[in-house]
Design goal:
Strand order of the largest sheet: 1-2-3-4-6-9
Family: Belongs to the enoyl-CoA hydratase/isomerase family.
GO molecular function: catalytic activity
CATH architecture: Alpha-Beta Complex
Helix content: 40-55%
InterPro entries: ClpP/crotonase-like_dom_sf, Enoyl-CoA_hydra/iso, Enoyl-CoA_hydra_C
Order of helices and strands: HEEHEHEEHEEHHEHEHHHH
Structural class: alpha/beta
Number of domains: 1
Number of strands: 9
Shape: globular
Radius of gyration: 18 Å
Protein name: Enoyl-CoA hydratase
Strand content: 5-15%
Length: 267
Amino acid sequence: MGPVSETGNTKEKVRDMIIEKRSEGVATVIMNDPEKRNAFSIPMRLALLDKFRELESDPEVRVIVFSGKGDNFCVGGDVTSMGHKPIGEALDRMRIVHDLVRLLAQSSKPKIAAVEGWAVGGGLALALLCDTIVASESARFKAGYGGIGMAPDVGILHTLPARVGRGRALQIFMYDETFDARQALDWGAIDSVVPKGTTLDKAQRLAAILAVKAPLPIALTRSVLSSGLDEVLMREREIQALMFSSEDHAEGKAAFFEKRPAKFTGS
C-alpha cells in the first residue's frame, strides 16, 4: 500500500478507527473518530479498507451497514494532511482510496449508509458508494472540493451522476452549495429521511430484509451497475496527482486555515 501506512503511530490509530457489530448476517461498520467528525484521514482509509476486505471474505456476512460515530457521518479528507505531495506519495494515497472505492462498489455484498449530520467531500462520496442511503432530517451534504482547490474524488464523479443525473451533479460540484436531506431525497441522492438519531435503526431493519434474499442476483446486479467506474478512477488518478501539487490547492488550504476567501489563479 505504500509508505503512508508504515509508521507505528499510524498502525495504532488504524486499530481504533472502526467499531464493528454483527447480528444475523448483518455487519455494522462505524467510523470511530468523532473528535475529527470521522474525517477521511489516512488511518481511517486504511482501517476501512482492512475491515471491508475482511467482511467481503466472510461467508456469514450478507449485508453491511455503514455509519459514523457521534453527530456526523464523515466530513471528508483531513485538510491538515493535505498539501504539496511528491507524485509518488500522492499516487500511493490514491491507490489506497481506489482500492476502497472498488471494494465498496464492486464487491458482492450490498451496503447501506446511515448518515447523521454532515457528509462532505470524501464523506459524501463514501455514502454514495453504498446501495441504499438513509439520512436523518438534520443531515447536511456538500461536495466541498472546489473550496480547497481540489477536483472531486473517491469515485464521486461516477456515483453522484448515476443517482442524480449529469446536469444536477455538475451543479452540485460547480456551485458547491450545502443541501439538506429533503433536497437530497428530492434529487434522488439518498433514499429515505428519518428522525435524527434513528438512521442506524432504519438501516439495520433494511439490512435484515436484504440478508434473507438470494445473494447472487444482488451481487450480479451491483456488478453490472458499477460498469464504468474503473475508467472514472483512472481519470481521477491523473487529475488528483496534478491537483495535489497545484498552487490553487496550496491557496485553498491556506485560506481554509486562515478563514478567508481563497484567491485562485488556475495554476
